[in-house]
Amino acid sequence: MRSYDVAIIGGGPGGVTTALSARNTYPDKKIVLIRKEKTALIPCGIPYTLHTLEKVEDDILPDKLLENNDIDLIIGEVVDAKDGELTLNDGEKIEWKKLVLALGSQPFIPPIPGVDKKGVYPIGKDIDLLRELREKVEDAENIVIIGGGFIGVEVADELLKKGKKVLIVEKLPSLLPLSMDKEFGDSVIDVLKQNGAEVVVGVSLKEIIGGEKVEGVILEDGRRYSADLVIIAVGYKPNIELAQHMGIEVDPRYGIIVDEYLRTSMKDVFAVGDCTAKRVFLTGKWSKLMLASTAMAQGRLAGSNLFDIKVIKEFNGTIGTFSTKIGDIAFGATGLTEEQARRWGIEYTVGVNETVDKHPGKLPDSNKVYIKVIYAKYSHVLLGAQIRGGDSVGEWINMLSVMVQKKMTDMEIDTLQIGTHPLLTSSPIVYPVINATVDAIMKWFR
Length: 446
Known about the structure:
25% of the residues lie in helices and 28% in strands. It is of the alpha/beta class.
């Protein structure tokens, strides 16, 4: 029997980050990471294995990160865990002092008639399945994507670049409905349509039709569409079976219950990433949002505090910071949307601004930028922001995420001291984050 100070089950971003954080904090400890997949993938890169990347193998999460930090890697599936001991599917037993569950998630398969037909694929994290899907995409002509979240729209964008005929179906009233307000989701619809997609929102899929192989789909309103490939992208569910088997407290819908330091209900057992139940940072409501950035934040905190509290920092919930690029337009969101604030009874003020990301705007590669900020009406704290524009959106939304996390007020943001340059940023006179904030201030001031 091999014995370790720290055993981590799961080889995604959360598991790897936990291992690296533990190694940095506890250099003398013996650490092992156990995963059932021979090859680990970078989750955020999976949509791009269908076109932009030359092959699926270009999206591999390298094991060198573990090797270079003296972290053992075992390929195997944990089938039992109790009394400080893990049992693998080959019968090997691993002894541990601290255990981290980084079990990840798996695609949710909706109970739609015909979902088990050949030619229906979920967007999963299995390299062999993705290789097969890529081959099927090459031969397909009409492709239907079920789900209009960020995975669905990124896959649609990739398939359009391949020249495929794409239909995307989302049962909610717009695309990216859990991350962005309708005006931003409608902008995504416009971009996809301009690039040749057909988009249906506000309607559910009723049935996948055909013989042994898929031939088309029927929507709830009776519309029929031909399809020789259907891709399921309606979200993921946390992997909680092992935790349940161990007797650890879980929520069946949201995942393993953890405290601010990622400790589970079982002594010496932690959990990070998609498998954990997360609350929204600003409201305390449960969140189904699963992001690699959240998993890595959890992993850094858990890995630092396995044996004692070295980092006095609570994980207070997910902010939900997200960015993507559809066609030539980048989109970003952080914190609460206006729709969420309204639904949860939060009084708020909205500020908007549109400008360009260089100055003057006639400079090459300038892009229009539109930003929306949401402030609490009485505390004046930034609740959330959404932005669309050029590639600078990716870093702008990260800056706004920090502002949400630090609970900055509108007046603090209004008086920020910033650095600007014609080739790199918007003009200081029309800096979008500040000017959108001024727009919000003027609304409550009046």
